[in-house]
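Reviewers of the previous submission asked for a worked example of the structure-prediction workflow described in the proposal, so we include one complete record here. The input consisted solely of the amino acid sequence. No template or homolog information was supplied to the procedure at any stage.
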Amino acid sequence: MRPLAALERFFERIIERPSARLFRARLQPVQVQRRIERAMETERLSGADRILVPNRFRVRLHPDDLEGFGDMSVTLAAELADGALAFARAHRYAVADMPRVDLAADPAVARGDIRVDARFADPGPRPADPVDPASSSEPPGDDGLLDARHATRTMIFDIPRAEPPLARLREVRPDGTQREIELDGASLTIGRSSENALVLHDARVSRHHARLQARRGTLVFTDLRSTNGSRVNGVRVAEVVLGEGDRIEVGDTVLVVETVSSG
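From that input alone, the workflow returned the following structure tokens.
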């Protein structure tokens, strides 16, 4: 770990632990996601032509914090892995294969704290393409993967750019200005805090207000128990599957679903 990163983590623990114990604030998935992203940044390795980041993460939480996620903990690990993949893609990082996240209860971790153990792991063997034995010294193919015959070498691939987006939304801000937003299938958190993927500068929006995510081929909107709630087409909702033309009201901001992929 780099000295500066270690110093930053030391001060984070001093600031975050007392406040978590005092207010007993429930951990939010976005907080865990940010810790995983921080671990990727801290442990990344720079090469001549790429930056490699860890692909295995063990998230250790106090048992009460893990239990606080309730039924969501079943799918949380998969969502966190998807978020790690999206983070790597956005920063042009390389990973050995699809990231994997494991959640573990650890009584030694303080309530409100998050410990992330990040490591690099070679992917399992993949079927080798038919090749001429005489060409066994060829370099990796255009897909960025090392061939299975190089089992003793680290297998790395560059995250490809997303195909056509899962959905397109139009954000209409309180001042009337607008912008287009593309969703690539990764979980998108919405709120006033800068920790969110979609930050809304709207006083009536909670710090961690809502989430948009792909689920079984659909686009799902979930309100994260926000103070002022969320409405879709004028109706207050907790969670709903969205379709083209739906209007999401978050505070004084409106998100209009313009397109949703059928895939």
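The chain is about 25% helix and 30% strand. We consider this example representative of the routine output the project will generate in years two and three.
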